[in-house]
Amino acid sequence: MTTLLVTYAGDVDTRFDRDYWIERHLPLVREVWGPLGLRSVAGFFPAGDGAGIIAIAPCVFRDEAAMTAALAAPQSRRVMDDIRRFTDVEPSRSRAVVL
Prior knowledge:
This protein has 3 helices and 4 strands. By secondary structure, the protein is an alpha+beta fold. The chain has one domain: Alpha-Beta Plaits (2-Layer Sandwich). A 4-stranded antiparallel β-sheet has the order 2-3-1-4. It is globular.
């Protein structure tokens, strides 16, 4: 399995609609990427002082090829276009390595 970590950085003044992200965006991610090899996705809000990482979504794919294919798929535009509905922050994406 391969995990794509999608993170959002900001502070207490950053627009981020948590309810929309959990209730609408993450189900859209499952809908679009599920058929392409996404095994699971979850949303987390790190505890802290309100600055730094404000949200993180680990997206677990069947393998590296599935992750690469999902990110390149034309239907992924729906996922990317939906981001503006809940935040003005540009997400960071990184591949998690399990040791």
